[in-house]
Amino acid sequence: MEKLTRSEIERLSSHAGEHLVSLYLPTRQTGIEAHQEDPIRLKNLLRWAEEQLGGRGLRPNQIDGVLEPARQLLDNDAFWADEVSLGLALFLEAGQPMRLHRLPLPVRELAVVSHRFHLKPLVPLLSGDGRFFLLALSQNQVRLFEMSQYRCRELAGDELPGSLGEALWTDQNDEHSENRGGGSGSNASVNAVHSQGETGREKKKHDLERFCKKIDAGINELLAGQRTPLVLAGVEYVTSIYREVSHYQHLVEQIVEGNPDLLRPDELHARAWKIVEPLFTRQRRDAEEQFGLYAHNGRAATKLSQVLAAAHEGRVDTLWVACDKHIWGRFDPLTKEVNQQTHQEDLLDLAAVQTLLCSGRVYGVTADEVPGETYIAALLRY
Asked: Which residues pair with 21 in a beta bridge?
């Protein structure tokens, strides 16, 4: 079972096929009822998917080829006993492994068969966009996390030093190598100057500055081109030194205070989200105000065909879409016309996917939260 990341959602959104099945079901986390009711929900969804596939002209053996991986879960007691999520998403395609994801948010029961995977229920995972990074700093270890309201994922890599001792040991090895190689030894000379006459406190600060500069170099390599907020977690003395040397432009002022080594990832996540939630709330409010300002000059759209055309052309900066509604039909990107006489796909989902593919921001909200008293609204780049 793959962890559902932003990159995985983007891969799903760019995939196309002939008869792609998307299944969503809420799950109960505990109790005997969960083990009884959840498989029944899945069985009902598979029946709906089977009817849709049959309506598209597939024979029974072809339908079995698409749905069989999901059917095998129905009697898998171990799978349902292990279920600790709020929802499940299953993506099925004939001849391909099933993609199964546990979801950190509740979803409505839904079965969709189309030429694309249906992804609108996942939009709240990206809303706001709600994504930020957390850098947990201590002298003993350095950890970088990618987070959102619902997710917390530690990022692995060699770009960051593992600890203060590792960073200083690497520096010393580099200096010895330069000296053996007949170099000028400038680094060794500089460090010797720093060492002469330094008090213990001064040396500690100097070592921490070198440590933080190495971390900053790694952060700027890992987050190159990002405009995503970065929250620091650590004791004030260490985080203040890091802030002094940092070149990352989107450091959040407030920090998660205390020794991060004593906190589990979920505890770090909970404390960091309290810090960044107001930032994302303000970002959404600012976008809504912009929508109101641009409502009459062509940079705001609520007509479905206009929004879909702009999404296909990469012109949508911010999209609001009702996750609790569906508008079925077909959109022709050449004529820019919408045909709602067919049940080909959910056009609200199409607009959301196209906006994500073009790096737009998508807010998955309820119908009454969409600006303009409709099911979809867009703030355009131009």
From this structure: 92, 113
Q: Residue 78 — pLDDT band, cuts 50, 70, 90?
A: confident
> Which residues make beta-bridge pairs with 231?
134
In this prediction, residue 195 carries a pLDDT of 52
* 8 A C-beta contact, residue 349 and residue 328: no
Q: pLDDT tens, 232-269? A: 999 999 999 999 999 999 999 999 999 999 999 999 99
H-run or E-run covering 107: none
70/51 Cα distance (integer angstroms): 15
Number of C-beta neighbours around residue 75 at 10 A: 9
- For 215, the token pair is 């971390």
All structural domains of the chain, each given as residue ranges with its CATH number in brackets, are 6-118 (3.30.960.10), 132-282 (3.30.420), 295-380 (3.30.1330.30)
- Highest mean pLDDT (candidates 26-35, 195-204, 273-282): 273-282
Torsional sign, CA 190, 196, 202, 207: positive
Token pair for 131: 């994504």
Which segments of the chain does DSSP mark as H helices, in order?
A: 6-14, 32-55, 60-71, 77-81, 164-180, 186-195, 200-222, 236-245, 265-294, 304-312, 347-357
Amino acid at 4: L
Amino acid at position 150, single letter: Y
pLDDT of residue 171: 59
